[in-house]
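In keeping with the milestone schedule agreed at the kick-off meeting, the structural modelling team has produced records for the first pair of proteins. Each record is given below as a sequence line and a structure-token line. The laboratory manager (R.T.) confirmed that both were archived under the project's standard naming scheme.
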Amino acid sequence: MNKLKRRQIFERLQAENPHPTTELRFDSPFQLLIAVILSAQATDVSVNKATTPLFLVADTPQALLDLGEAKLKEAIKTLG
């Protein structure tokens, strides 16, 4: 697919839905990124249930790193 074809596709999508939304809850681009990654394996509803408490303690890359692997696994274990 060439650049012109990609541009035409995006222009058509934008014309049909100029202000797309998501059911995922987030307050920053970082939180959206994490939620989208998790939503690849789960529903948006279940991701929101897991990320709501997660983002209270880890809402930045450093905070997520500081949380540690064990606590992160515990926070998202409901996602499978």
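The second protein of the pair:
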Amino acid sequence: DALAHARTKLARKGVDLLVLNDVSGGAVFGQPDTSVLLLAPDGSVAGPHAGTKAQVAHAVWDRIVGLRTAAH
């Protein structure tokens, strides 16, 4: 499943955050809305963050800013 694959990829890449946008059903293509999950290396999953693609992008950006702020 997409979540298991995302967890494996997160560990393999060694990144601070992975955004899972499951497009397997094709429902998001050509549509104004989407939904994502945010995975962290500690195993936590935030979301779903859903809304317009711009709203979701802002939610992802807010998480990135939070990670960067916590690192300093």
